[in-house]
Design goal:
DNA polymerase, domain 1; Rossmann fold; alpha/beta; 49% helix; single chain; 220 residues
């Protein structure tokens, strides 16, 4: 395989943001009278917020959902966003891929606007040739639509790409899109769960992921 593009999930893969986001959701729900624990939110983190809220507290009406989301967004901008840091090894991996001329994309279940806000805050926006959010394609991860859209925008065929993510949805999305190299990060999810979802390789940290990727970059 000659690697011509790498697609990345964002939160929990490149950015050390999952705990901050989970606490923001917990606080937004608490403002609306719902008591959920931090761990309850962490356990289901990954899908779009439209799915996470009812999964945590049961069905809510459209107006209440929008109020919960507004509380989360306010808290996120005031507290979470300024404190998000790269995961260890992330800047170095992105630097190496850029130096090798490999186009990069973000494929996240954040809305696209939120993904750009986070990338801007981290100074990373120029690194990525495409940024795909939950509202960018017809369906979000775990459906293949976001990965396919990213590849279309970059102009690379699926069989020449890799996907790096930390949830089962990442692996399912990339597998369904026909991406052959799927690296599952296992610092938050079990190796068994990631393999069951379609990971072809497992990595405990980004240095291990880099070793897998650069086996194929070197063959260019």
């Amino acid at each position: 395989m000659r690697l011509q593009a790498v697609l990345f999930d964002l939160d929990g893969t490149l950015a050390d943001s999952e705990a901050l986001i989970a606490d923001g959701i917990r606080l937004a729900l608490k403002e609306h009278g719902y008591e959920v624990t931090f761990q309850q939110v962490m356990d289901i983190l990954g899908p779009p917020m439209t799915e996470m809220v009812p999964a945590l507290v049961g069905p809510v009406g459209p107006e209440e959902y929008q109020s919960i989301r507004a509380a989360y967004v306010r808290n996120y901008h005031e507290v979470q966003l300024p404190n998000i840091q790269p995961l260890p090894g992330a800047p170095e991996l992105l630097d190496r891929l850029e130096a090798a001329g490999v186009p990069l994309a973000v494929v996240t279940n954040k809305i696209e606007e939120g993904a750009y806000e986070q990338l801007d805050a981290m100074g990373w926006t120029p690194r990525f040739a495409a940024v795909i959010g939950a509202d960018s394609a017809a369906k979000p991860k775990p459906f293949p639509d976001p990965a396919r859209l990213a590849l279309e925008r970059i102009g690379v065929a699926a069989e020449s790409a890799a996907f790096l993510g930390d949830t089962g949805a990442d692996m399912e999305c990339s597998k369904s899109a026909g991406i052959p190299l799927r690296i599952g990060m296992v610092h938050a999810r079990s190796p068994q769960a990631m393999e069951a979802a379609g990971a072809t390789h497992l990595a405990r940290h980004l240095d291990e992921a880099a070793a897998v990727l650069f086996e194929h970059v070197a063959a260019r």
